[in-house]
Amino acid sequence: MSAAKERAPTVIAIAGGGKVFVESAHTVPLVHITISFRSGAFHDPPARDGTARMMLRLLRRGADGLGAQEIERTIDTLGAELSVEASASTVTLGGSVIRRNLEPFIALIRRIVGKPTFSTDELERLRRESTAELLEARDNDRHLASVAFRRAVFGEHPFGRGSSGRITSIQKITEEDIRAAYAKHFRQGNVVFGFAGDIDEAGARKHAEEIASALPTGAGPEGHIAEPTPLTGRALVFIDKPERTQTQILIGGLGTHPKDPDHVALAAATAVFGGTFTSRLMREVRSKRGWSYGASARIAIERARHAFQIWTFPAQEDAAACVELELGLLETFVNDGITERETSFIKRYLTRSHAFDVDTAQKRLHQALDVELLDLPADYHTAYLAHVAAVTRDSANAAVKARFTAENLVIAVVGTDSQIRAAVEAKIARLAGTKVIKFDEL
Amino acid sequence: MPKTPRAQDTVDQVNATKKSALAGWSLEETLSFGGAPLFVLRLGNGLRVLLLPDDSAKVVSYFTWFRVGSRHEKPGKTGLAHLFEHLMFNETEGLKAGEFDRKLEENGAESNAATWLDWTYYYEALPSDRFGLAVTLESERMARLVLCEPQIASEKEVVANERRYRVEDDVEGAANELLYKHAFQKHAYHWPTIGWMDDIKNFTPEDCAAFYKTYYAPNNATLVVVGDVKLKDALVKIRDAYGALPAAALPVEDTTPEPFQLEERRIEVKKPTASEKVILGYRGPALGDNDHPTLVVLSEILFGGRASRLYEKLVIEKELVTDLRGWASTFRDPGLFEMFFYARGEHTCEEILTALEPEIARLHVDVVSDEELTRAKARLELGLLSTLDTASGKAEQMGFYDTVLGDPVGAFGRLAAYRRVSAGDIRTAARRYLHAAQRTMVIVRRDGAPSATAESAEAAQ
């Protein structure tokens, strides 16, 4: 096994405006392929949330004379896998294949992305399937908390919509919407390819060109995701579900934009607060009190400012006290920031653990794709260590003060209303209002 | 496919390792792990070490596998192996509470642990120049753990919360617990690894100390090291840290085999869930049984991907379920061939079973097609290759097969076994294992209020 080269992936421009990123590693006979487009669910038509994702899911259900089952059987026979993902900013197909079957897998992908059928029967089948999946998701309390939190923080902003859509919006999507979404996103000038693993640059270029040539020419849609509106006051969103022994709690608000000058300093401070096993949250909530199996804080990264959120899941009887504790910890964090010792600690952690950000070809590739697709600063990953080295206690604390607040927050709780809501409300000082939602109406 | 390592390569590496570094070690064998030499060594106190130098990244993965799991517990003390896994991150004689994790994190390490029916493991993934830290910390907690209050009380609360998360408030977790509770009535696989809630709350420091003394010893452990390390350096560090730890007198295994099951067992529960669920557990073979690879291939044919038989029948053709999964459990003793079905909307478990039975019966009569066999084997090959991308992926494969089967390169042997499976083998296995009398069934009904219809969701939108 040979030593990996630690360098940025190779970038190749191809005819039609597409780009190809290649990160070779010949340790395992597998090739990973990513085909992304620089536009996403943000462009879904009004009241038709979920359109881009449904379009993606329909790709493998009929193309160029192949039926859905023929496509699925071919994928499996080749020792391959294929998945799709829609976010606000991008739509992506991702696949892996055993090296010896790369060529036929590329040929299949070319047919799937170049000549999708989008049949009425398959659209109706997928609509029924998606509806059932959205209903089934109600069994997952963490999912319920996430949906409620996202909608409360972002409202009508594109980040509040979610790429899976709602049961109501899924019913409204037409065949024309699907074809329009395909025409909008799947353009030669809008595509970014990524290849990682047992493949060289020449091979990657050749296969990217084969696939790109099957796409319609032209550029992707224009569009800028606006900054979300800041929150005002503390709002409790209580998702009422019967027979809970445990709650799911998400607390947070707006967070960071990757182009903020204080972005890395904020990320470092957030890691002190809730990003490691010895973070303040873990120590206070789990280690000292045993209230929650996990306790963490994170900032999400997108093309516009996204969310900051704290996650815990205490027993129902501990929920109110846990919310009070978290709000107190957040207040201290915002007012007093982190200490010199914590700053040194987190810088060592972030610097030394960087080895695991780049230990596989796939990870190195995806760092480069993130920069390209999320419009991150060009040196976001390549100069990561220098950015971390530049963080000081003062810069971290100034970032926390500038970006976070303990006053303008959403507190989303999944629990049994009759048992704990009043107690939770009583522990939230300066609570501006409560919205109670039945879990099967979310 | 594993290749035989060039004999000269192995000889060269061992010769390059000075005699002083090899002192105290016995090199039991060198094996091929996907073409790379894997050294299998043992210290005088019984500690087994698997070492695979791999310079594909500047990292090292360090696993410690203990041959103890929930099967070694007794009724009334269930969940002790898992609670103990939590306690291992607390105080030691040389480290105050919290220091273990802090030291790892400030050196950029990832760490975690897992407990299952047959085993427990702990792992660190570190930048390769921090390898020595893992050796120091793991050897410290293998022998010098401090077990006292209030850490034990706090950790019991954490585990109780983990149980609420994974079982009490999780429909599938709760149903799975019921499946094993009823499928196994004599064998220790009867109780869940996380333990019954009452047992978790009642553990004492004395229980924990006795468990530690009994099972946490070098002769009950295997270290697995994969990454950018030098053989000589690794052997010296490990020997110096662990060499003086005493071996323990390990208790003789006291397991009661599960009697033959002669009739179907059905359990029905109500949960606040969007739709009905049915879980089946057919009596299955142990991981080391010759039939096991055959059942894994059969499971792929039935459940593997969207071209599988049951996906086509139940999801696409009949639209009866939203999700389905199946697998043969990978335990040291005979386990279950598990099947999960999530009903779609208002469909019932009875409808699912009515559609499933002819598919099971068909397996008893007809042979599967060559095309189905090819697809299943290709998917299994992809699955194995996907685990070999990282040092930790390789170390986990190695440690798992070594701990359960005593074969560190068992993953590759399995792949060869999958390739040998024929259509006839599949039919024979189906005839042997897939009988209603040999299965346990858990049916989850909806508990009143929640509706699985789209209409109920409209109000709030």
Secondary structure: elements and pairs:
The complex is a heterodimer of chains A (442) and B (461).
Chain A: E1 10-13, E2 19-24, E3 30-37, H1 51-59, E4 62-63, E5 66-67, H2 68-77, E6 80-86, E7 91-98, H3 102-114, H4 120-136, H5 141-154, H6 167-172, H7 175-185, E8 191-197, H8 201-212, E9 234-240, E10 248-254, H9 263-274, H10 280-288, E11 295-299, E12 307-312, H11 316-336, H12 340-352, H13 361-373, H14 384-390, H15 393-403, E13 409-415, H16 417-426, E14 431-438
Helix pairs in contact in A: 1-7, 3-8, 9-12, 9-15, 10-11, 11-16
Chain B: H1 7-16, H2 19-22, E1 25-33, E2 36-43, E3 48-53, E4 59-66, H3 80-87, H4 99-106, E5 110-115, E6 120-127, H5 131-143, H6 151-168, H7 171-183, H8 197-202, H9 205-215, E7 221-227, H10 231-242, E8 265-271, E9 277-283, H11 291-303, H12 309-317, E10 321-328, E11 336-343, H13 349-365, H14 370-386, H15 391-405, H16 410-420, H17 423-433, E12 439-446
Helix pairs in contact in B: 3-6, 5-10, 11-14, 11-17, 12-13, 13-17, 14-16
Structural commentary:
The complex is a heterodimer of chains A (442) and B (461). With 442 residues, chain A is an alpha+beta fold. Helices cover 43% and strands 19% of the residues of chain A. Chain A is built from 16 helices and 14 strands. In chain B, helix 11 crosses helix 14, helix 13 packs across helix 17 and helix 14 runs antiparallel to helix 16. The N and C termini of chain B lie far apart (54 Å). Chains A and B meet through helix 2, strand 7, helix 4, helix 6 and helix 10 of A and helix 4, helix 6, helix 12 and helix 14 of B.
The succession of helices and strands of chain B, N to C, reads HHEEEEHHEEHHHHHEHEEHHEEHHHHHE
What share of residues of chain A is helical?
A: 40-55%
Q: State the end-to-end distance of chain A.
A: 51 Å
Coarse morphology of chain A: globular
User: How are the strands of the biggest sheet of chain A laid out side by side?
Assistant: 1-2-8-3-7-6
Task: Please report the distance between the alpha carbons of the first and last residues of chain B.
Answer: 54 Å
Q: Taking strands numbered 1, 2, ... along the chain, how are they ordered across the largest sheet of chain B?
A: 1-2-3-7-4-6-5
Main beta sheet of chain A:
6 strands, mixed
Low-confidence stretches of chain A: 1-6
Helix content of chain B: 40-55%
Rg result of chain A:
23 Å
Nearest-integer average pLDDT of chain B = 93
Order of helices and strands of chain A: EEEHEEHEEHHHHHEHEEHHEEHHHHHEHE
Largest interface: A-B, 82 and 81 residues
Number of strands of chain B: 12
Discrete helix count of chain B:
17
Number of helices of chain A: 16
Decide which structural class fits the backbone of chain A: alpha+beta
Strand coverage percent of chain B: 15-25%
Mean pLDDT value of chain A: 96
Instruction: Name the assembly state.
Output: heterodimer
